[in-house]
Design goal:
The structure is a single chain. It contains 22 helices and five strands. The strands form two sheets. The chain has a three-stranded mixed beta sheet with strand order 3-5-4, covered by helices on one side. A hairpin with a 5-residue loop joins strand 1 and strand 2. It is globular and about 75 Å long. The two termini are 45 Å apart. The mean pLDDT is 92.
Length: 595
């Protein structure tokens, strides 16, 4: 497909090939600096009582995670290459070897982070009050607060060694199996031909009944071929997570996710309670949508079926043009970031056999490594996906540019705000360019996204939480039990107007987030917070400056302080309920038209 914009990653800017001698040079250099650090500080007990020596050691330790010391270029090159071809045995082998190397280097210096987290409380206070340590204050405070959940050096090293084979390889295996699958199915082009899993998923949202039916049937065939493996995989991954949580003494199974993302468990629970208490909103939405579509049966795969077509192109060039216009109108720094990401050939656009499914934006400590992966199929949802992932991209670009490498990352609790905010802005821009009838189609599409992002993701969280509870209690869950659990939680947010045929009970199989240890809360919280920010921006365009500064924070502040800078109090349950009320008001206005 021709485009005026780059559509493939140019990984040759990093290395020429897997045989580029610079890869080995970086790895050898990294090994030397890690070994030198361990030699100098492993048996040096005075650094834990002498604040001057501790400062020098800390600066050296932080430098280990920067640039060539951490082999960041090697990591990007190998991982992105594998994303494009998950069936290449050599790429898999090279990634595995590099991961093993990373674990080895991490274990070599792990003594430092473990012992740092457990230094005497008086020493902790002295460190936090010493101006020399001020650039590292947030990082050190989090380290000290998490110390009680850190095990011995030896135990932490063992956990690092077993992580890949105990859970990561399981996840990669299933993703590889599914992304490499294809089935013959009817497409929008009117042809029956072999289509990739990602193309089949896109076909499930077609307005053409036969395309949608054949696509869903093909997806079911693929999932049925892998569900037995998926059952063993998810039992293993969940059991591994339970063991780790018990070893660390976490107060509950999802605490580790909250702790690592610098968000209080009480905040997540308040958001969950608020959303569950308003599942009536999502239930009513699907009742309304069924009425609008005029269909007798609304199947699970129909839940994001468009209610009509918007008479404008959503080819990749059009999507980029619309999004660039939005980012440029919003703020010059957002415009600069998106334009650089496009110009630097950091976006891989189209589906391909062997390429990973879904979409993502890679967190990066370097502005020229903010890689975005898409599987673009010219649908409205692809416009929204582009805006969403480039929202992440702008966020990553700005904090990589603004923060030192040790703060150039983001908590999932803040990351989804930027992506959802820009997705909302782009959707609003499209509405300006269409007729009143098409605006309603887009508004239904917008509500599809809102419902899926808030209510569906909280339902997913509840599924994941109960899945952990039951596997811990029973030791193992079989296919029938997992399928029934999935249906239970999906039906809770979908309501009675959406049918879940027996085959749709398998659709948890490809949903990778269930293996990401309670990550999905961030989508719901991000949507609700982004809606609040969109409302503030619509009232005062100067609020854009505050949002840009928020996007530069990275992890230099904790989650609460980050949101405080925007005037958002995430600890107040009423904040979440007010956000849900805004959605309810929009839905009521739409319901009034179809009484």
């Amino acid at each position: 497909m021709k485009s005026k914009y780059p559509t493939k990653w140019n990984l040759s800017k990093i290395f020429n090939s897997l045989d580029d001698p610079r890869i080995k040079e970086q790895i050898d250099s990294s090994r030397k600096v890690h070994e030198a650090f361990a030699k100098e500080y492993l048996d040096n007990e005075t650094i834990w009582t002498d604040i001057d020596e501790l400062y020098e050691a800390l600066v050296s330790y932080i430098a280990l995670s920067e640039g060539e010391n951490a082999c960041t270029d090697v990591a990007y090159y190998l991982y992105m290459s594998k994303v494009l071809n998950q069936s290449d045995d050599r790429l898999i082998a090279e990634n595995t070897k590099f991961q093993d190397f990373g674990v080895e280097m991490g274990n070599l210096v792990k003594f430092f982070s473990v012992k740092l987290s457990k230094i005497d409380p008086q020493m902790q206070r002295e460190v936090l009050n010493d101006k020399r340590f001020e650039p590292y204050y947030t990082m050190l405070k989090e380290t000290f607060e998490s110390g009680k959940y850190v095990l011995s050096v030896e135990a932490e090293q063992i956990l690092s060694l077993k992580d890949e084979v105990a859970s990561q390889k399981w996840r990669e295996m299933l993703n590889k199996f599914i992304s490499g699958e294809s089935e013959v199915s009817l497409g929008e082009d009117g042809e029956e031909k072999l289509r990739s899993f990602e193309e089949l998923m896109a076909g499930c949202y077609s307005l053409k009944d036969e395309v949608r039916l054949q696509s869903a049937s093909a997806v079911n065939k693929i999932l049925s071929r892998h569900i037995d493996v998926a059952v063993e995989e998810i039992n293993a991954v969940v059991k591994d997570h339970i063991i780790d949580a018990k070893l660390r003494g976490y107060p509950r199974i999802d605490f580790g996710s909250h702790n690592s993302n610098q968000i209080d468990t009480g905040v997540v629970d308040a958001m969950r309670r608020a959303v569950i208490s308003r599942f009536d909103i999502s239930n009513r939405y699907y009742e309304l949508k069924k009425k609008k579509l005029g269909i007798k049966t609304q199947n699970y795969y129909d839940r994001v079926l468009p209610v009509g077509e918007v008479d404008m192109g959503f080819g990749y060039d059009e999507v980029v043009d619309i999004s660039r216009e939005v980012f440029e109108e919003f703020h010059p720094e957002a415009a600069r970031a998106i334009n650089d990401i496009i110009k630097l050939e950091l976006i891989d656009v189209y589906p391909a056999e062997g390429k990973s499914n879904g979409a993502f934006c890679m967190q990066s400590v370097d502005v020229d490594k903010v890689f975005v992966m898409l599987n673009h199929t010219d649908k409205l949802r692809d416009l929204q996906t582009f805006a969403h992932e480039l929202g992440h991209g702008v966020n990553h670009y700005l904090y990589a540019e603004s923060q030192p490498h040790y703060y150039a990352s983001g908590s999932v609790a803040t990351a989804e705000v930027a992506s959802t905010f820009f997705e909302g802005m782009v959707t609003a821009k499209v509405e300006e360019k269409v007729s009143d009838e098409e605006k309603e189609i887009l508004f239904f599409g917008h509500l599809d996204g809102v419902i899926a992002t808030i209510f569906r993701q909280v339902a997913a969280y509840e599924f994941e939480f109960e899945l952990h509870q039951l596997i811990e209690e029973k030791g193992y869950l079989g296919k029938k039990e997992i399928n029934e659990l999935f249906v239970k939680h999906m039906k809770a947010y979908l309501g009675g107007s959406v049918e879940m045929p027996e085959e749709s009970a398998m659709w948890w199989v490809y949903w990778s987030h269930f293996r990401a240890d309670f990550y999905v809360f961030s989508y719901a919280s991000g949507e609700l917070i982004a809606n609040s920010l969109l409302a503030k921006y619509s009232e005062d365009n100067n609020f854009a400056d505050k949002i840009i500064e928020f996007l530069k924070i990275g992890t230099s502040l904790n989650v609460k302080d980050s949101f405080d800078s925007l005037g958002v109090d995430v600890t107040d349950e009423n904040f979440w309920l007010e956000g849900l009320d805004l959605i309810d008001q929009k839905l009521k206005a739409l319901e009034a038209k179809y009484k």
